[in-house]
Amino acid sequence: xxxxxxxxxxxxxxxxxxxxxxxxxxxxxxxxxxxxxxxxxxxxxxxxxxxxxxxxxxxxxxxxxxxxxxxxxxxxxxxxxxxxxxxxxxxxxxxxxxxxxxxxxxxxxxxxxxxxxxxxxxxxxxxxxxxxxxxxxxxxxxxxxxxxxxxxxxxxxxxxxxxxxxxxxxxxxxxxxxxxxxxxxxxxxxxxxxxxxxxxxxxxxxxxxxxxxxxxxxxxxxxxxx
Amino acid sequence: xxxxxxxxxxxxxxxxxxxxxxxxxxxxxxxxxxxxxxxxxxxxxxxxxxxxxxxxxxxxxxxxxxxxxxxxxxxxxxxxxxxxxxxxxxxxxxxxxxxxxxxxxxxxxxxxxxxxxxxxxxxxxxxxxxxxxxxxxxxxxxxxxxxxxxxxxxxxxxxxxxxxxxxxxxxxxxxxxxxxxxxxxxxxxxxxxxxxxxxxxxxxxxxxxxxxxxxxxxxxxxxxxx
Lengths: 226, 226
Ligand SMILES: N[C@@H](CCC(=O)N[C@@H](CS)C(=O)NCC(=O)O)C(=O)O
Ligand SMILES: N[C@@H](CCC(=O)N[C@@H](CS)C(=O)NCC(=O)O)C(=O)O
What we know:
Distance between the termini of chain A: 35 Å
Number of domains of chain A: 2
Largest sheet of chain A: 4 strands, mixed
Number of helices of chain A: 8
GO biological process, one term (chains A, B): glutathione metabolic process
Number of strands of chain A: 4
Strand order of the largest sheet of chain A: 2-1-3-4
Bound molecules: glutathione
Order of helices and strands of chain A: EHEHEEHHHHHH
InterPro entries (chains A, B): Glutathione-S-Trfase_C-like, Glutathione-S-Trfase_C_sf, Glutathione_S-Trfase, Glutathione_S-Trfase_N, GST_C, Thioredoxin-like_sf
CATH architecture of the largest domain in chain A: Up-down Bundle
Structural class of chain A: alpha+beta
Keywords (chains A, B): Transferase
CATH topology of the largest domain in chain A: Glutathione S-transferase Yfyf (Class Pi), Chain A, domain 2
Radius of gyration of chain A: 17 Å
Oligomer: homodimer
Subunit structure (chains A, B): Homodimer.
Strand content of chain A: 5-15%
Organism (chains A, B): Oceanibaculum pacificum
């Protein structure tokens, strides 16, 4: 059975969970306390980060894969039955650009400032959240939601005509922030409509059932009609 | 003619310059002062970062591409004559993992602390360098050079049997740090031997000729026999 080493509120891990589910690939989740720096885990990923995927159902060899962008490209190459980076090289570049936007800029400007400060710091015993960081995150999220709205006015899905890695990367981040109730959906109708479409996919259901010990999500988190 | 919008000491831009040269694709460099936030540049890349590649020699359409990882994948798809991400899906994943290692971890732990503090801050008028950041960068670089040495003991090139994107990504970062004279080559013989091999490639020559106004590199920077 494939194993995904993960953390519950890691957007990078959630992206891989969504990809695996969209491609209909069975897998088992193992929570990895990265901060313990387990030597067996370090041997799999010297960067000591989740996600790490162990794919023992690959055609030729058991594959041990680290880094969510790398894992996404690997899954696309080995399991192309259901494509998530599709189209011409230019169309594929656009899907990858948007995925990198959410995993890079959005992560730095929003996710780390909100999920990082409010949840991860507590989990890691790194002290209280910085109110300055939280303020920045709450402010930055608006222009990213506007950008999603802008894209949705022009396209069916973020990256083009089809649901793609771009939607999964974006929704993975937003789902983490939604878990702590910090997405101002009501001020961003277009982004909300897009998120409702992603959220209603079967691949999303397991994420909506996630519950972290000690912090329950708001009622609308799992509601498809939020 | 292809145009690469770039900054001289950006490791991400240098990586693309190396890829283009290895693939023997002609291009013109245009320096982009990203901090001016030019509206025509923002239209090409809303993230307002270099590198951006305009490929008007692509088979079907002029392509405007942002983000160095995205550009690397695009070039690999459109110009596969000389591959830089080669082999089985697992071998390709290893090359991508190492590229992500240098563009992610190395960048955060070393490049930003050294090139960012010493050169970019001055360029952007952001005040003096933080001595704490510089100390961290000078300390962190050792374990990364050890990692390069570890890989070279086991493989011909960082990612496997062939020169690949992994070598170009790593060398692009190290070349920026070498420009400011902060790579302790003499303490890391294996890494030095590997860098000498990359440095002697024709694709590397243009980088060794770079000179930033107001800061000359040390004498060994352009010396193949350093
Ligand atoms: N570039 C990596 C980033 C992964 C990442 O940042 N993972 C976090 C959890 S969200 C982690 O494991 N952090 C532990 C650490 O960096 O020590 C990817 O895309 O997989
Ligand atoms: N993930 C991007 C990072 C590019 C990047 O950080 N570029 C820097 C120069 S080294 C830049 O343009 N910074 C300007 C800014 O972020 O505003 C890539 O791989 O291309």
